[in-house]
Amino acid sequence: MALDAPSATPLSMFTPWPDRLRHSAIILLAAALALAGLVLLDELLPLRALVVFLCIAGAALVPWRLHGAVAKREEERHANPVEAPAVSAVVEGIPDPAVLLDRAGRVIHLNAAAAELAPALRKGELAQFALRMPEIITALREAIATTEIRRASYHDHVPVDRWMELVITPVPVPTAFGGTDKCMLMTFHDLTPLRRVEEMRADFVANASHELRTPLAALSGFIDTLQGPAKDDPKARERFLGIMHTQATRMARLIDDLLSLSRVELSAHVQPHTMVDVVAIIRQVTDGLESLARERQVVIETSLPDAPVTIAGDREELLRVFENLIENALKYGASGERVVVSLEQAVSADNAPEIRVKVRDFGPGIAPEHLPRLTERFYRVDVGDSRAQGGTGLGLSLVKHILNRHRGRLLIESVPRNGAAFTACFPQARSARSA
Predict the structure, then answer these.
(1) Can you list the residues of the chain whose pLDDT is less than 50?
(2) What pLDDT digit, counting tens, does each position of 65-111 carry?
(3) What are the CA-CA distances from residue 159 to residues 28, 53, 99, 155, 226 (Å)?
(4) Among 403, 320, 401, which Cα is nearest to 354's?
(5) Residue 397 burial (10 A CB sphere; 0-12, 13-18, 19+)
(6) What is the pLDDT of residue 13?
(7) Predicted model pTM
(8) Which of 377, 382, 367, 373 is closest to 397 using CA atoms?
(9) Strands 299-303, 338-347: parallel, antiparallel or unpaired by DSSP?
(10) CA-based R_g, the chain, Å
């Protein structure tokens, strides 16, 4: 603070005087001419004329200072306290999407979260035009009419399913004339995680009880057999223990897939933003499945670029996607003796650039009537073959939900006796697009 002291020099106190004199020039000029005329006519002594001129000059300067102070007070009186930067900072600091409206429903302030939730919101415009949900409009109209708290819950389907709760709270605010008025503070709370947890719990109980019943019954039956008739039969014991191991492995994989699917559904509304190299992920998956390919006598052919191809995604989830697609091709298309994994850059139907990873087999293919239902939970083209291959019926459902979370899509093409192709499409990352 001491460093700023020299700036307040005595000369700085007189810097406004040239402006003041310029604004009072007409008054001073008229006074000087009048006094000079009186002196020339011997009606007034020069000394007295000088004193009178000095008094007039001082009086001419006083109204200018009063006018500036009055104008400043008028400007402060007409300013709206609600539009102050402090109020904007408070609204911006609310973690949930928040919008402050006046009594007419016009937007005064909104934070970044609200702008992301409803991009059509604009300062000074009516919120009803930007928020088209009937539940929101009804609650807002009632809150404005009654100045009471109103709540509304609604289901937003775009870009993904989200369950939101809106709370409209009347807030008393001071006016420019010393009174009080009511503004409306709208806050949005995301209920999606809670709804996902409830659905996950219900789905897990229903699916687990249905799918686990068969392996549990098999294990129970074999245990009873080993404890009874086959107690002293080594060959039967070895065969039954092998079957029990297979059933236990199937149960473990089923539970793992159910938990993975539930986790993905729980975070389906949160798009990943971490940049990952999809080429490196595909190479890691193909290397890990080489032993299965040799066991099925299938050759994995890859057509991948040498340079990295980056997308915004979750690495572990993308590993599950490509692992499921390539493993399915090795199991169900083994008769074709080869699987081709390729990557290409293409353009979607709405002219957006995207990355496409195709997994193609040359096996028996899939009948057209089954294609629309392949991504349903526990849907199998051939139940016996799927269970014999160790499938849980959840692989493609998991792939679909992971792609939805990544704002991607799954394309399925198949012709009977000519193999099948599964293509995972991802939106191209902005950094890669600019490069």
Answers:
(1) 1-15, 63-67, 69-71, 74-78, 434-435
(2) 444 544 455 444 445 677 778 888 888 888 889 999 988 888 999 99
(3) 72, 78, 21, 12, 55
(4) 403
(5) buried
(6) 42
(7) 0.51
(8) 377
(9) parallel
(10) 39
